[in-house]
Amino acid sequence: MSTKKSNYFDLVYQVVREIPPGRVCTYGTIAHYLGLKSGARMVGYAMNAAHTLPDVPAHRVVNRAGVLTGKHHFATPTRMQELLELEGIHVEKDQVQDFDKLFWDPEKELGL
After folding, report:
1. What are the start-end ranges of the H helices in the chain?
2. Distance (Å, rounded) from C-alpha 23 to C-alpha 30?
3. 4 pLDDT above the threshold of 80
4. Closest CA to 26 of 81, 67, 87, 86
5. Predicted local confidence at residue 108, as pLDDT
6. Looking at residue 8, what is its pLDDT?
7. pLDDT digits over 50-101, tens only?
8. Buried b / exposed e along 63-95 (16+ C-beta atoms within 10 A)
9. Which pLDDT does position 5 carry in this prediction?
10. Rounded to whole angstroms, how far apart are CA atoms 26 and 103?
11. Based on the number of CB atoms within 10 Å of its own CB, is 50 exposed (0-12), middle (13-18) or buried (19 or more)?
């Protein structure tokens, strides 16, 4: 793995580690916060590689509509939902309910 890719993933992981339990963030919001030109897709690549890292709560990152698009990268197809529900987040048909209330924006919470 190149140093550049590793550093990019590390930046993403730093932000994801800040998402509090019971809250969710989106791939695009993380990319925007970091000023990453490669955007949401690259954050998704970082999240796909994070599911084996116990200190990166990848389950808290969803798509812009609150859909659990990354669920297939967990040990089981239901694991992402299970982890969110353990934090009090209600999920129906692979979508976070009350997404607007649970959305965590690093720009507002962490500043730039």
Report:
1. 3-18, 27-34, 39-48, 79-86, 99-102, 106-109
2. 14
3. no
4. 67
5. 92
6. 87
7. 978 899 999 999 999 999 999 999 999 999 999 999 999 999 999 999 999 9
8. beebbbbbbebbeeeeebbebbeeeebebeeee
9. 53
10. 8
11. buried
Task: Quote the CA–CA distance of 49 and 60 in Å, as a whole number.
Answer: 14
Residue 3 has pLDDT above 60, yes or no: no
**Residue for token pair 């934090």:** 87
Written as six digits, the tokens of 97 are 């309910």
State the amino acid at position 19 in one-letter form.
Answer: I
Q: Which residues contact 100 (CB under 8 A, 6 or more apart)?
A: none
